[in-house]
Amino acid sequence: MEAIPFLLVAFLTLCLMPSGFALQCGTCGKGIPGMPKCDSGNVPKRTCPQHWDRCFTATVVYTNGSEKMEVIDRNCTSTYGCDPKSQYYICNYFKNNETTMASCKVDCCPTDMCNLDGPSTTLEPATTVPAISVGLAASFGAILLALVLTMLV
């Protein structure tokens, strides 16, 4: 019985602890003014904002008459940015009224700096499982706290 308060504190600490394990992605490009080039030896790391759980590489080809221009962007996104069915799909942001987008390919990956390694697999969009997990954990924590408090009274 003496272990229950310790376990409760440990559990609540883990649940309430802010995420210190943010994803880091390479941030570089080709054909984007002001962005570091990916072929340089010193590609900047970006710590991704909360809920941005994927690194991506987007390769876009634009045509303007007979001219072609390739743009490559590597950065952070959420799983929705990797989903062609999502309104947040990365290719939607590369549409330009002045030129025609001939092609757009997005590769996403879930580990630090993985967007600097060659091709990767496009991942499925996020589901509501993480939100459900947090809700269940919070409910379990509340039940455990109530149990401990009733034992102390």
Automatic annotation (TrEMBL):
The reply to whether Transmembrane figures as a keyword in the UniProt entry is: yes
**Does the keyword field hold Signal?**
yes
The cross-references to InterPro entries, in alphabetical order and at most eight, read: Snake_toxin-like_sf (IPR045860)
Transmembrane feature ranges: 131-152
Q: Which domain of life is it from?
A: Eukaryota
Which controlled-vocabulary keywords does the entry list? Disulfide bond, Membrane, Signal, Transmembrane, Transmembrane helix
Query: In the record, which residues are listed under signal peptide?
Result: 1-22
Q: State what protein this is by name.
A: UPAR/Ly6 domain-containing protein
